[in-house]
Amino acid sequence: MTRFTSFVAALLIAGAATAEQIGDVDKGAKVFSKCTGCHQIGEGATDRIGPHLNGIFGRGAAAHDGYRYSKSMKRAGDDGLVWTAETLDAYLENPRALVSKTRMSFRGLKDAEDRADVLAYMRSFSDNPSDVPEAEPTAIATDHDLDPAILALEGDAEYGEYLASECLTCHRADGASEGIPAITLWPTEDFVVAMHAYKRKLRPHPVMQMMAGRLNDEEIAALAAYFKDLE
């Protein structure tokens, strides 16, 4: 059992969680210093390169009025993405696993305890921290790291072409994006990470969750290989 899994198990025993039980607020304030080049939080926070993060818990993606979000973030919000401890944890670990073409250039926080701490700090600036539901984030002891062996799979592009017929009923083979995002010329790792995020229901689109849920690791790798070079 990892330290983080043990940590989450302790939360389950403890019952209803407070911000401190998600992680350490003081440590989280230090971790958040990595974010301050783009984001502000707390009294007087304003939008900068990225939106301010006051009240982020329980808010839908791209729902902060007055900030110009990327098309991908708006689409995620339209699909139903809501910022909870679980979805924020996944986004902080690998932003493009959750929102493929996010403008956030941050490479991610790989240490699970750092993420737990910064989430506790961010949660303390929610409008009503004591009322933020904790059942979802504390009931799921999960590490969002994708197995490197999955990323290392060499996909068969010809098999991917065979599998792609269902994908191409919605996505355009010519790469056009008219209400539905283009998936041609996508880097294979981004494609694979995104599809597994749908399989684990981190990405909220129900049709994509269903489609990805039917695919095994080799099939996802094959589709990634096919769409990577599809002009």
Question: Can you describe this structure?
Answer:
The chain is an all-alpha fold and 231 residues long. The protein has two domains: 3-139, Cytochrome c-like domain (Cytochrome Bc1 Complex, Chain D, domain 2); 148-228, Cytochrome c-like domain (Cytochrome Bc1 Complex, Chain D, domain 2), CATH 1.10.760. It has helices at 3-14, 19-22, 25-31, 71-79, 85-93, 95-98, 112-123, 135-139, 148-151, 157-163, 188-199, 206-213, 217-228. Helix 10 (157-163) crosses helix 13 and helix 11 packs antiparallel against helix 13 (217-228). It is elongated. The protein starts with a helix and ends with a helix.
Strand and helix layout:
Blueprint: H1 3-14, H2 19-22, H3 25-31, H4 71-79, H5 85-93, H6 95-98, H7 112-123, H8 135-139, H9 148-151, H10 157-163, H11 188-199, H12 206-213, H13 217-228
Helix pairs in contact: 3-7, 5-7, 10-13, 11-12, 11-13
Gist?
This protein is mainly alpha-helical. The protein has helices at residues 3-14, 19-22, 25-31, 71-79, 85-93, 95-98, 112-123, 135-139, 148-151, 157-163, 188-199, 206-213, 217-228.
What are the salient characteristics of this protein?
231 residues, mainly alpha, Cytochrome Bc1 Complex, Chain D, domain 2, 2 domains, elongated
